[in-house]
Design brief:
The structure holds 2 protein chains of 2 kinds. Chain A is α/β, with parallel strands linked by helices. Chain A has 2 domains: about 190 residues, Rossmann fold (3-Layer(aba) Sandwich), CATH 3.40.50; about 70 residues, no CATH class. Helix content of chain A is about 35%, strand content about 25%. Chain A is globular and about 60 Å long. Chain B has 16 helices and no strands. The longest helix of chain B has about 45 residues. At the A-B interface, α2, α4 and α7 of A face α11, α12 and α16 of B.
C-alpha cells in the first residue's frame, strides 16, 4: 500500500544576521493511516516539520525537500489553489493553545462553518447540522450554546475541543496535532486526548502527534520519532521505547521521575555535541 | 425551560446594557464638569481683565467698579462658577467683544464650515488610509509597502500650508480643476437657504445641483489635503495593527482550514485590527474638528480654527473659552462614540459591561 505521506530530506532554513540557519536538517519519514509521534525539546524542529507539511512555514523561512508527497500530490510544487483544496478538506492541524488559535471576534459556530464552507460544498442547514454533530462528537454537552459562543466564553478544555471539532469536521485524511494538550490543565488533558484518540481511530486517519512529552507520545502513538537539533536521531515502535539506543532518548527516559522514587539527585541530561552533528 | 433561561438571559443582557449606558453617561458628565472647571479657571487666570475688555481702557474708575460688580467679579469664586455653569447650560457663553454677537451664534456660524471640511477629510483619509495600510502590511518589505510608507512620511512631514499653496497653484491657478479659496462662489451664495450650515447637505437637500457642484469644487482641495494628513496617520497605524494581527495564531488556524487569503486578510485580521483602529480614526477626526488654522487661512475657510485664533489674538476671552469648551465637548463625544463602537466590535469588551 502506498503511504499517505512521504517526507524525504526535509530542510527548513531561516535567514538570520549570521547567515541562513537550518532548523530542520534532513528529516525523512513515511506515514500510513497510523499514529506517528514526534518528540523533542523546544527548538528541535518538530513544530516546523509539522507546519512545513501543510505548506505553512512562516516567512521568511523556506522549506525544501527531495520528496514531499501527500497521496500522490507533490506538495513542493503545489499551487495556491491546490493548497486551498488540500488544507482543511484533506489535511489539517490542531494547534497548541485555543486562547490564541481561535479568532477572538468570531463565534465558534462561524469558525466551524468556515472550515466546511471552504472544504466541501453543501447547503447552510446541512453544514450547520454537521457542525453541531461534530461538537457533540467532541463531547460538548450543549453544542448549541458553544456554537453561538465566542472563544473567550469557553474554558481551555472546551476551546480545544472546539478546535478539534473544527479540524475534524471535514474528515481529513491527515491530522497534525501540534502539542494539542500542552496548554491545558492536566486533568483536562487526558479527556481531550481520549476524544482525539477515539475520533482518529474511528475515522482511520493518519495522525502526526507532536509533543515534548515522551511518555504521553508513547502511550498514544504506534511509532515515535525522536528529534534533536533539527534531525531525527531515533525511530522506535512505541512499545519498544525501553530499547532506545540513542543516548539522548535514553537520557530523556532516565529523567522521568518514578513513583518508587528515591533517585536523588534527579539525573540531568548530559549533552554531547556529537548529537547535533 | 430553555425558553425561560433565554428570556432571563435577554433581560439581564438588557439590564447590563442599561447599566453600562448609565456608567458611561456618569463618566461623560464628570469629564464635562472637569472641562468646565478648566475653562472657567483659564478665564480667571489669564492676564486679560474682563472688565477692561468691556469698557475699554479709558473709562473712569466709577464705570470700572460698576461693571466689575455687574459681571459678578466681586463674588466668591464658587459662586462665579455656579453662575458660569448656569449660563453654559442655558447656552449663554457671553458676548464676543470682537463681533458684538453672542458667542453661541458665532460658533453656529463657523463650526459647520469646520464640521463639513473635517467630515469630508476624514472620509477621504479613512477610505484611502485603511486599505493602503492593509496592503502595506500584506506586502511587508516589498515595493507597495515602501510606497505607502513614503507617502505617509511625506504626509507627516510636509507643512500643510505649503502643500495647500502648491495645490492652489497647480489645481486652481494652472489646471483650473478645482475652485479657489472660500466655501462657495458669491454667485451661488444666496441660491441656498442655510439650514444645517453644511453647504453640501443644504444644496443637495434643496436640489440646487449647480450650487452643490460649486461647493464640492471648493471643498475638495482642502479636504483632500487634510484627508491626506489623516491618511498618513491612519495607514501607518493600520499597517502596524495588521502586521500584529497577521502574526497571530488564529490566522494560521484559518490558513489550516483552507480559508482563502483575501478572507483571512479582510475578514479575520482586519476585523480584529478594527478595534484599535476605531480610536485612531476617532482621534484623527477630533483633531480635524478642532479646525486647522493653517489650512483655513490658506483656503480662506471661515472655520473654527480661524475664529479661535482670531479671538485669541484680540484677547476675546469669551469667544476663546466658548470655542475651547466646544472642542473639549467634541473630544468627550468622540471618545464616548469610540467606546460604544468598541463594545460593538469586540465581544470581550461587551462581556465586561
Amino acid at each position: 500500500m502506498r503511504p499517505l505521506l512521504t517526507v524525504e530530506d526535509l530542510r527548513i532554513t531561516f535567514p538570520t544576521r549570521q547567515g541562513p540557519s537550518e532548523v530542520v536538517r534532513g528529516v525523512s519519514f513515511t506515514l500510513g493511516r497510523e499514529r506517528l509521534g514526534i518528540v523533542g525539546e523546544s527548538g528541535s524542529g518538530k513544530s516546523q516539520t509539522g507546519r512545513a507539511i501543510l505548506g505553512l512555514t512562516p516567512p521568511p523561512g523556506r522549506a525544501t525537500a527531495k520528496v514531499l508527497d501527500f497521496d500522490g500530490i507533490d506538495l513542493r510544487t503545489a499551487s495556491a489553489a491546490t493548497w486551498r483544496r488540500l488544507r482543511g478538506a484533506r489535511m489539517s492541524m490542531v494547534m497548541q493553545d485555543p486562547k490564541f488559535s481561535l479568532n477572538p471576534v468570531m463565534t465558534i459556530g462561524k469558525q466551524l462553518l468556515e472550515a466546511l464552507k471552504f472544504g466541501a460544498g453543501e447547503t447552510r442547514a446541512e453544514a450547520r447540522a454537521r457542525a453541531l454533530a461534530m461538537l457533540e462528537a467532541v463531547q460538548i454537552r450543549d453544542p448549541e450554546r458553544v456554537f453561538r459562543a465566542y472563544p473567550h466564553e469557553l474554558s481551555g478544555g472546551m476551546g480545544q475541543r472546539a478546535m478539534i471539532a473544527m479540524m475534524l469536521v471535514t474528515e481529513p485524511d491527515l491530522l497534525i496535532a501540534d502539542e494539542p494538550t500542552s496548554a491545558l490543565d492536566v486533568t483536562v488533558q487526558v479527556e481531550v486526548l481520549r476524544i482525539l484518540d477515539r475520533l482518529v481511530r474511528e475515522r482511520g486517519m493518519g495522525l502526526i502527534f507532536i509533543s515534548h512529552d515522551l511518555r504521553l507520545v508513547s502511550s498514544f502513538c504506534d511509532r515515535v520519532l525522536v528529534m534533536y537539533a533539527g534531525r531525527v536521531v531515533e525511530e522506535l515502535k512505541a512499545a519498544d521505547l525501553g530499547k532506545a539506543q540513542h543516548p539522548y532518548t535514553r537520557g530523556l527516559m532516565n529523567c522521568l521521575p518514578k513513583i518508587e522514587g528515591g533517585v536523588r539527585p534527579l539525573p540531568t541530561l548530559e549533552r554531547d555535541a556529537a548529537w547535533a552533528r | 425551560m430553555s425558553d425561560a433561561t433565554t428570556d432571563g438571559g435577554r433581560e439581564s443582557a438588557l439590564l447590563r446594557l442599561l447599566w453600562k449606558a448609565a456608567k458611561l453617561l456618569a463618566t461623560v458628565a464628570l469629564t464635562f464638569l472637569g472641562l468646565l472647571v478648566v475653562t472657567f479657571l483659564i478665564g480667571r487666570v489669564v492676564p486679560v481683565d474682563p472688565v477692561l475688555a468691556v469698557i475699554g481702557d479709558r473709562a473712569p474708575k466709577s464705570v470700572y467698579d460698576r461693571v466689575f460688580v455687574e459681571l459678578g467679579l466681586d463674588r466668591p469664586l464658587y459662586e462665579q462658577f455656579w453662575i458660569y455653569l448656569h449660563k453654559v447650560f442655558t447656552g449663554d457663553f457671553g458676548e464676543s467683544f470682537l463681533t458684538k454677537r453672542p458667542i453661541i451664534d458665532d460658533i453656529a456660524r463657523v463650526f459647520p464650515a469646520t464640521l463639513e471640511l473635517a467630515t469630508v477629510a476624514i472620509l477621504i483619509g479613512t477610505v484611502l488610509g485603511i486599505p493602503m495600510g492593509v496592503w502595506a502590511a500584506v506586502r511587508q518589505g516589498r515595493l507597495a509597502d515602501q510606497v505607502v510608507r513614503v507617502l505617509g512620511l511625506v504626509g507627516y512631514s510636509a507643512p500643510i500650508f505649503w502643500l495647500g499653496l502648491l495645490g492652489l497653484l497647480v489645481f486652481y491657478a494652472r489646471l483650473n480643476w478645482v475652485a479657489g479659496p472660500g466655501r462657495i462662489d458669491i454667485a451661488y451664495e444666496y441660491a441656498i437657504t442655510p439650514k444645517t450650515g453644511l453647504l453640501l447637505l443644504d444644496s443637495a437637500m434643496q436640489g440646487q445641483w449647480d450650487a452643490f457642484r460649486n461647493v464640492f469644487a471648493h471643498i475638495i482641495l482642502p479636504a483632500a489635503l487634510l484627508g491626506y494628513f489623516s491618511m498618513a496617520y491612519i495607514s501607518r497605524m493600520t499597517r502596524s495593527f495588521m502586521l500584529n494581527e497577521l502574526a497571530q495564531e488564529y490566522v494560521t488556524t484559518a490558513r489550516v482550514k483552507g480559508v482563502p487569503e483575501w478572507r483571512i486578510i479582510w475578514v479575520h485580521a482586519l476585523r480584529n485590527a478594527a478595534v484599535p483602529l476605531v480610536t485612531v480614526v476617532a482621534l484623527s477626526y477630533a483633531n480635524l474638528l478642532e479646525g486647522s488654522v493653517l489650512t483655513e487661512t490658506v483656503f480662506a475657510w471661515p472655520g473654527l480654527g480661524q475664529y479661535i485664533t482670531n479671538s485669541l489674538q484680540n484677547a476675546d476671552m469669551n469667544a476663546v473659552l466658548g470655542g475651547t469648551l466646544l472642542i473639549g465637548a467634541i473630544f468627550v463625544g468622540l471618545n464616548l462614540l469610540s467606546d460604544l463602537l468598541y463594545t460593538l466590535l469586540d465581544p470581550r469588551v461587551r462581556k465586561q459591561a
